[in-house]
Amino acid sequence: MILLANVASVYIAEKKYKQAEPLLEECVKLSGRVFPAGHPVFRNILKTYSFVLAKLNRSDEAARARAQSEVLLAFPEHFN
User: What is the distance between the terminal CA atoms of the chain, rounded to a whole angstrom?
Assistant: First the structure.
């Protein structure tokens, strides 16, 4: 999962958001199974995924991912 996130980061740096999106989507799925919900890695992947979705003009999906990361940040104890 970390390797996928790192490759996605390279695509983001190169502004290749379309290539980064499926990698980050998989990272979100995997991190949801590997880390507790309030884990900082899980939150950061959600924020990065939200950023990429916004760059791809998928604002509704981006808002959902951003909101999920913010809820996890505010109330991590409710998701463990």
Answer: 20
Full residue range of the structural domain in which residue 12 is found = 2-78
State the pTM of this model: 0.85
DSSP string, 11-80: HHHTT-HHHHHHHHHHHHHHHHHHS-TT-HHHHHHHHHHHHHHHHTT-HHHHHHHHHHHHHHHH-GGG--
DSSP annotation of 1: -
CATH of the domain at 26: 1.25.40
- Answer yes or no: is pLDDT of 79 > 50: no
